[in-house]
């Protein structure tokens, strides 16, 4: 149990929490909700003892084991695998003691340390670390790469893997899904559902929250309100609470009307009947929870489009990549009403595809035919990083006016009113953005994209660094957006409520995925793709045009690949059987009471040491067998 007793918490001169009391019970899975800057991360740091309270106490059992995901990763020479194993400090400590005992020939210490390693399941720790890395999207050959060689997004994944590796009774994760692709996120969900301890989770992804949590703590008015249930339940409960406040009634009714208009417009789109039914149910549910967001500081919309050609872009036999193609034979027509979600594993080419369409990267071959009045709005993480830190929000929008080629530039007051919808108000609009947070810069980059009045939106992970209220506002704006869009996102709620069709990129093949985002999620779980994709099996694969000659060539290649795999599997099975047999013999020896007599101390030490070695070997061989068997089955 974790008890917050009359705590007050400040960040600089800002009061975050004032005289707050709260109890979180053992095994509870709690989502921490609040706007950017409300104090969520500061609360985590206070619980971890990293920052002091202004008053009050945070109490929990003295033997509580806490693991918190780090926000920074040093650029060290340690390999990715060692970095993750290092998080298990008890194992590393025993490992170091074992080496000292071996060097000094201390048989008593050796026997004791081997027993302690066995108790913490230390002999399979390498295997567990490899599973974490694989689940989070690292290739096997990357396990030994130094941490310093990974980009920022992959270092976030390493921090997450380390937090999961660390033995804990309380696991605190701050935005763990940032920089994860959908496949890694679904894997993480499965891992967290098996976790036996208490979870505190900060996330802007409502689908992720709904899957994991059973309680919500909401930051509101320098206090913490506890709700029972997942995020959707919280929205309903808060909506009921807010609906009681008469002053907000008119705002609620206007929002309901907007949603109902969207439902009516979408209901009769016969070409997307299956998606429509799923969307209709979701949007009708949203009417119930709309009041929960009426006090959101975010109010923005894409303006009415002046130019919206029927066809915006035609893509024919496009190949994309760098030195060699990542994806070939991409054929796609983008109409004014196209609303596309792009699926695929990290590194498959999704972001590269958007860069090529946006004109930021040269295509390798093929043709892209564009409408004369095409206006692209491209939003990606590097767009956020490219904002000029010496500019103010007003200056950035004024710069967008020039990019847009406005004959009658907006007045400063019009720009300020527009920025207010993104919660940039008062003096904030005239401050240089050098000290703005990542979330504030993301909102500003999004504001610039909206201001450009695009008729084709290309969005690469638009919800990264946004809080949950801003994600909700973006979802509402995209629903009312009249143009075409292609979105890459791991946010399933955003995808299910804004796009009509899905395409996937897998092993260089671009094809339509005939189903919803939830069908794709189910396929990931059922097809064993969450521990490192080898080959995608879905309906879309039938759409790739492969002639009979290619099929025969593929079949021959499969036979060639299967032969060495079959041989490797048999070899591994023989090694596993031999290791298991030797372990069985050792267990029989350890069952003999005579081995524990003083005169047999050295022999006992050697037996325990050998058992530890064999268990480690067995874990490695079983991992190799599983990988080989999985590859064999996928090729069949």
Key features?
about 625 residues; alpha/beta; Rossmann fold; 4 domains; six-stranded mixed beta sheet; globular
Structural features, described:
The chain has 636 residues and is an alpha/beta fold. It has four domains: 2-234, Rossmann fold; 246-293; 311-543, Rossmann fold; 548-635. Helices cover 46% and strands 18% of the residues. The protein contains 21 helices and 18 strands. The chain has helices at 40-47, 80-86, 89-104, 107-119, 125-135, 152-165, 182-194, 206-212, 231-243, 249-267, 273-289, 350-358, 381-385, 393-404, 412-420, 438-451, 468-480, 492-498, 517-526, 548-590, 601-635, and strands at 2-11, 14-24, 29-33, 55-59, 66-68, 170-174, 198-202, 215-220, 223-228, 311-321, 325-335, 339-343, 365-370, 376-379, 456-460, 484-488, 501-506, 509-513. The protein has a six-stranded mixed sheet, sandwiched between helices. Helix 10 packs antiparallel against helix 11 (273-289) and helix 14 (393-404) packs parallel to helix 16. The radius of gyration is 28 Å and the shape is globular.
CATH homologous superfamily caption of the largest domain? P-loop containing nucleotide triphosphate hydrolases
Please describe the biggest sheet, giving its number of strands, its sense, and whether it closes into a barrel.
Answer: 6 strands, mixed
- CATH 2nd-level architecture of the largest domain: 3-Layer(aba) Sandwich
Strand order of the largest sheet: 5-6-7-3-8-9
Identify the overall geometry.
globular
């Amino acid at each position: 149990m974790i008890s917050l007793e009359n705590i007050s918490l400040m960040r600089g001169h800002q009061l975050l929490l004032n005289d707050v009391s709260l109890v979180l019970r053992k095994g509870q899975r709690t989502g921490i909700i609040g706007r950017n800057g409300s104090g969520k991360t500061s609360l985590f740091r206070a619980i971890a003892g990293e920052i002091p309270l202004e008053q009050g106490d945070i109490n929990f059992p003295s033997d509580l084991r806490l693991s918190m995901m780090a926000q920074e990763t040093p650029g060290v020479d340690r390999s990715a695998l060692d970095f993750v194993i290092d998080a298990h400090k008890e194992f590393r400590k025993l490992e170091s003691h074992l080496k000292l005992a071996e060097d000094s020939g201390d048989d008593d210490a050796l026997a004791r340390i081997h027993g302690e390693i066995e108790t913490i399941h230390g002999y399979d720790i390498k295997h567990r670390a490899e599973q974490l890395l694989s689940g989070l999207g690292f290739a096997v050959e990357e396990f030994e790469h130094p941490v310093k060689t990974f980009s920022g997004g992959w270092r976030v994944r390493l921090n997450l893997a380390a937090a999961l590796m660390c033995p804990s009774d309380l696991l605190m994760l701050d935005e763990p899904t940032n920089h994860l692709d959908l496949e890694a996120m679904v894997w993480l969900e499965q891992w967290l559902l098996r976790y036996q301890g208490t979870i505190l989770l900060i996330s802007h992804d409502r689908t992720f929250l709904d899957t994991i949590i059973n309680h919500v703590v909401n930051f509101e008015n320098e206090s913490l309100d506890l709700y029972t249930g997942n995020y959707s339940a919280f929205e309903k409960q808060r909506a009921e609470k807010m609906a009681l406040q008469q002053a907000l009634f008119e705002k609620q009714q206007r929002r309901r009307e907007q949603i109902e208009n969207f439902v009516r417009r979408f209901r009769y789109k016969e070409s997307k009947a299956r998606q429509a039914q799923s969307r209709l149910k979701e949007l009708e549910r949203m009417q119930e929870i709309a009041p929960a967001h009426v006090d959101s500081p975010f109010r923005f919309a894409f303006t009415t489009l002046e130019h919206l050609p029927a066809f915006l872009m035609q893509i024919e036999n496009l190949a994309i990549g760098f030195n060699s193609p990542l994806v070939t034979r991409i054929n796609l027509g983008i109409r004014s009403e196209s609303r596309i979600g792009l699926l695929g594993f990290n590194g498959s080419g999704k972001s590269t595809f958007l860069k090529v369409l946006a004109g930021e990267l040269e295509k390798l071959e093929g043709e892209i035919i564009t409408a004369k009045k095409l206006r692209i709005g491209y939003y990606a993480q590097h767009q956020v990083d490219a904002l000029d830190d010496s500019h103010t929000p007003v200056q950035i929008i004024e710069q967008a006016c020039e990019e847009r080629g406005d004959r009658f530039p907006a007045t400063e007051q019009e720009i300020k009113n527009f920025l207010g919808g993104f919660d940039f108000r008062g003096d904030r609009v005239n401050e240089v953005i050098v000290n703005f947070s990542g979330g504030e810069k993301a909102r500003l980059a999004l504001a610039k994209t909206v201001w450009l009045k695009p008729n084709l939106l290309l969005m690469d992970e638009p919800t990264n660094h946004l809080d949950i209220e801003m994600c909700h506002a973006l979802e509402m704006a995209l629903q009312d957006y009249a143009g075409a869009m292609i979105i890459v996102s791991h946010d399933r709620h955003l995808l299910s409520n804004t796009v009509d069709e899905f395409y996937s990129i897998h092993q260089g093949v671009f094809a339509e995925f005939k189903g919803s985002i939830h069908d794709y999620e189910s396929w990931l779980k059922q097809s064993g793709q969450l521990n490192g994709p080898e080959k995608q099996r879905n309906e879309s694969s039938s759409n790739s045009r492969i002639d009979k000659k290619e099929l025969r060539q593929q079949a021959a290649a499969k036979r060639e690949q299967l032969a060495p795999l079959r041989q490797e599997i048999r070899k591994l099975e023989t090694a596993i059987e031999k290791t298991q047999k030797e372990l069985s013999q050792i267990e029989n020896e350890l069952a003999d009471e005579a081995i524990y007599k003083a005169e047999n101390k050295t022999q006992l030490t050697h037996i325990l040491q050998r058992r530890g070695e064999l268990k480690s070997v067995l874990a490695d061989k079983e991992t190799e067998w599983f990988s080989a068997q999985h590859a064999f089955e996928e090729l069949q």
